[in-house]
Every structure is written in structure tokens, then in C-alpha cells.
Amino acid sequence: MRSDLMVKENKIDEFISAMIEKGRRLAAYARPSDETDILFEAGYFHESNVSLCDQCDRSKCVERPTRDFNGPEIHYGLIASGDSVVKNTTRRSAIIREVGDVLCFEMEAAGMMTEFSCIVIRGISDYADSHKNDHWHYYAAATAAACAKELLSYLDPNNIESPRRSSELQPDHESRASNVFHGTGIQNTGSGDFSVGKNLNIS
Length: 203
Prior knowledge:
This is Nucleoside phosphorylase domain-containing protein. This protein is an alpha+beta fold.
């Protein structure tokens, strides 16, 4: 899939458009206006109790070049999973310094990956800063679902084994081996596949 999408565009927009046409309530999953996609300087904090940034200083916005492709892009690499929401640039930077360059922060997958091996697919909806709001959440969820659908189109269902719980693979939960992953892509650890974007230590 990754190789294919180097020479052609993904089908995420196509899948989302087809979904929205199935019912008027699904319009909530449409792409918001680009005017609401605002990245502020790291040191500039949200100035209002209102979730949207109508009262924030637009002179503090980070200017970014126009993208060649206006649809969603699929990124491959590390996702940081934790037990709390990250909406502070100081904390965001600290995590990146400790863990390395990550694509995004999320909360749900950490609990799932202790139970069974999986690939985490997330839609990115904000910049993990104090300006965080829900404006892009529905669209982000739709893009993640569409990306998963595209990934599934590359899999042969006849070659897929039934998933096994991590508890079945590792009876002694406290004596997990320490693994070092080198390189990029899908690396097999013997107890399941992890998708990594760089060298990574897991204990």
C-alpha cells in the first residue's frame, strides 16, 4: 500500500464522500474549512474560555506552505499512547524529546495493545496544544476509518489468522523480554507485529 501510494493518490476522500451520501446526518464527518486549521506559535496559549480560537491573536499563527494535494495524507511511523490528553506545548515537546519524533498523541490504543497485537490507525484532529478543540474530530475519525478500509483492500482474508490475546502469548506478564527494534516498517517480535518508524526500545 505504501509503495502504491507513492505513485497514486489514496482513496480516503472517495470513501468519505461515498459515506456522506448515505445519510444527511453523516454530513458531520465532512472536511471542515481550511480556515479552522490554525497552528499557533508554541509559546502562545489560548486566551479564552471558548473552545474555538475566534479571540486568539492571528498574528501568532505559524505560516505554512500550501500543500500540493488538498486531501488527507497517510503518514507512517510512531504514535504516542498515554492515559491523559496532551494539550500543552511544553508537555508535547517534553514527550517528543523523551520518546522521539512521533506522528500524534492518543489515549485509546495503549489499553488495546496490552491485550492483542494490532496496528493503530488514527486521524489527527489538532496540534496537542492549548488551542485544542473538537472542530476536526469527526473528520479525523472518518479519515482513520477510510484509511483502515484502504489498508484492508490489500489483505487476503484467507491468509489472516485469528488474533490471540497477549495473555495467551505471554503467561508471565511481569517477565516480558526487552526488545530493540532497528530500522523502519513492520518488525516481527515473535509475539506479534509492531509498526515502527525508527529504532525503538520496548521493555
